[in-house]
Design goal:
mainly beta, Beta-galactosidase, Chain A, domain 5, nine-stranded antiparallel β-sheet, 4 helices, 19 strands
Length: about 325
């Protein structure tokens, strides 16, 4: 059965459409089969690179529009949570997480574009590779980040592979905090049901991890190799899964996943997640040391079971 599933997956990829990458200054627009998928924002007017919006193969947007393109019924909280991004809330005491342009101060860091090394479309996949500098509040460089993003075409799925390497420019400490790190802020209809939320759109979301733990109450702060967050809009069932690569530091990751649509893999926040002040999940790099993180994002139709998220993760873990 597993071999049959793999064969189907390979056949589907062979039939997949082109991925087109179009750079316009400090933005790169991504299209699949002539339809918009997402845009990478990385210019001087941003404080961290992010993808916005993310769409399913059907075209339905699965990420929150606020603050870039606010939509009716969206929560107006956490203005720094834009699309899909990678940062951390405590790097040598500087906040790269809650660092929206409206949240600036001496302890806020910025991630700025250094160089775009590759923007290439193609059959079945397209690639963006760029380097960024993580700057402290005084403009000093803490880290150099090299990020490679591969968007893979598929008839029913949208797949993004990210390979991120952080190299320390001097001694750097990633502090223990839940505010991090690889994250997505989902559309309002994908949030978990909440009486405090606006009535429209209806909140239909449910998160589940590889161990079968569901909802924020049971899955927040737990370790797991993957997590999926599903919901329904106008009769269309969709989900977004994040896969933590087996080679990542401290695999399997902890999850900072909230019912209001935040969905983040974070290896550093042990004290917060395990609610033990004696713990220290921080990581220190000496100058020249590196940390490498790899993730896969899968936007899929159906729920966790019907999309076979567990099987898709096994293929990813096997390097496929």
């Amino acid at each position: 059965m597993k071999r049959f599933f793999v064969a189907l997956l390979i056949c589907a990829w062979l039939l997949a459409a082109d991925v087109k990458m179009t750079r316009d200054g400090d933005r790169v627009a991504v299209e699949i089969d002539g339809q918009p998928f997402t845009t990478l924002f990385m210019g001087q007017d941003t404080t961290k690179p992010y993808l916005h919006p993310l769409r399913a193969a059907s075209g339905t947007v699965v990420t929150r529009g606020y603050p870039m393109e606010p939509a009716e019924g969206e929560r107006r909280d956490h203005i720094h949570q834009r699309g899909l991004w990678f940062t951390h809330g405590d790097v040598n005491g500087f906040d790269f997480w809650g660092n929206d342009p409206t949240q600036q101060g001496p302890k806020k860091g910025r991630i700025v574009l250094n160089k775009v090394q590759q923007v290439k479309g193609g059959k079945q996949a397209g690639t963006i590779q760029a380097s960024f500098d993580w700057l402290d509040g005084q403009g000093g460089r803490l880290l150099t980040e090299t990020r490679r993003m591969v968007v893979r075409a598929h008839p029913t799925l949208r797949i993004v592979d990210l390979d991120i390497t952080l190299e320390a420019a001097r001694e750097v400490k990633f502090g223990d905090t839940k505010e991090g790190s690889f994250a997505i802020r989902l559309a309002a209809w994908m949030e978990e049901p909440d009486k405090r939320a606006p009535e429209v759109p209806k909140r239909t979301g449910k998160m589940v991890n590889a161990e079968g733990q569901e909802t924020e109450r049971n899955a927040w702060g737990k370790r797991s190799p993957w997590m999926d967050y599903c919901g329904e809009k106008d009769g269309e069932k969709l989900g977004v899964a994040i896969f933590d690569h087996p080679g990542n530091p401290k695999h399997p990751t902890f999850w900072h996943a909230r019912g209001y649509g935040l969905f983040a893999a974070n290896i550093f926040g042990e004290r917060d997640f395990l609610r033990d002040k004696q713990l220290d999940g921080s990581v220190t790099l000496k100058a020249g040391d590196r940390l490498r993180f790899r993730y896969r994002v899968v936007i899929h139709p159906g729920d966790t079971a019907s999309a076979n998220i567990a099987g898709l993760y096994q293929q990813y873990a096997a390097g496929k």
